[in-house]
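hiii so um. not sure if this is the right channel but i have a protein structure encoded as tokens and i wanna go backwards to a sequence. like what aa goes where. can anyone help
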């Protein structure tokens, strides 16, 4: 029976932890980030992984950093394998080296593309046709380990980052279970080295990226809207109030003869960009409820002469 240490923090890491806990493998320790302030009230909140560990009587730790003393305490538990999923704390070599059957990570991209903090969001933002998840070996250099398994598929432009966080967390859990079963059975496992020339980086999403520029091309704007849902959510301005755009899609209706931000009141809420109108499907004005585009037209009695604008 494999003795596993599991390191993860957000919801993305939950499906794999649950699958391992439901299997014949043994979770001997769970690592997750310390409780942090979160939400509007910035109340101290425990991670989803900590809550699951507590609810299922799993031994858990919340170290601020992985020092040699902590490493020694985990080594004394005599682990076989370390599994990592969106843990959020750098793992030093002296810690990785204590696992005789090595350490493996679920990374939400088709490596070597989109190493780094925001792989799902960057793949959508840059309009990738394919999206996927990779099982790789954890090494000292971030996201640079050998690749064991990849699942990739065509990206649906109607799905947001939030949709893909859920899809890829479940796909990643299935792939990791396949990999762990192979290890437990003692099978010969092949891996491939990442091609460094093909590496791209997915830097962390900043709140400033939420502010859309309606003078950009429609495809870029829609990709950004879908990438930044659920966080930080794209924003423009209407009637001198900030509005959040949660979901939008491309149209083939040219808007080159109209000012970016101008409104086309057909059956849907269409907004001009530098080349085509975009169709807004989900929108919320500051202080209001989240509405469909059609309900936004009706509730706020939009007029053709009105415009959206950049914040």
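sure thing!! here u go:
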């Amino acid at each position: 029976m494999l003795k596993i240490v599991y390191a993860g923090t957000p919801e993305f890491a939950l499906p794999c932890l649950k699958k391992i806990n439901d299997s014949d493998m043994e979770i001997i320790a769970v690592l997750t980030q310390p409780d942090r302030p979160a939400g509007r009230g910035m109340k101290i909140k425990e991670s989803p992984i900590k809550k699951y560990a507590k609810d299922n009587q799993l031994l858990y730790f919340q170290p601020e950093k992985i020092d040699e003393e902590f490493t020694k305490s985990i080594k004394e538990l005599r682990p076989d394998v370390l599994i990592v999923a969106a843990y959020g704390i750098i793992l030093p070599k002296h810690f990785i080296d204590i696992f005789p059957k090595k350490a493996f990570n679920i990374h939400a991209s088709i490596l070597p593309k989109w190493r780094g903090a925001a792989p799902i969001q960057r793949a959508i933002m840059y309009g990738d046709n394919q999206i996927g998840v990779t099982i790789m070996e954890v090494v000292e250099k971030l996201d640079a380990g050998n690749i064991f398994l990849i699942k990739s598929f065509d990206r649906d432009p109607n799905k947001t980052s939030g949709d893909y966080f859920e899809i890829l967390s479940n796909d990643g859990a299935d792939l990791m279970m396949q990999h762990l079963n192979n290890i437990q059975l003692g099978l010969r496992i092949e891996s491939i080295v990442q091609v460094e020339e093909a590496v791209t980086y997915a830097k962390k999403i900043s709140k400033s990226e939420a502010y859309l520029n309606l003078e950009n091309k429609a495809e870029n704007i829609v990709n950004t809207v879908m990438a930044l849902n659920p966080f930080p959510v794209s924003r423009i301005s209407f009637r001198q109030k900030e509005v959040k755009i949660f979901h939008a899609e491309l149209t083939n209706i040219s808007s080159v003869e109209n000012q970016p931000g101008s409104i086309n009141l057909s059956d849907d809420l269409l907004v001009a960009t530098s080349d085509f109108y975009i169709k807004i499907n989900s929108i919320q004005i500051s202080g209001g409820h989240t509405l469909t585009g059609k309900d936004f037209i009706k509730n706020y009695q939009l007029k053709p002469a009105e415009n959206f604008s950049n914040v």
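oh and The longest strand covers residues 241-254.
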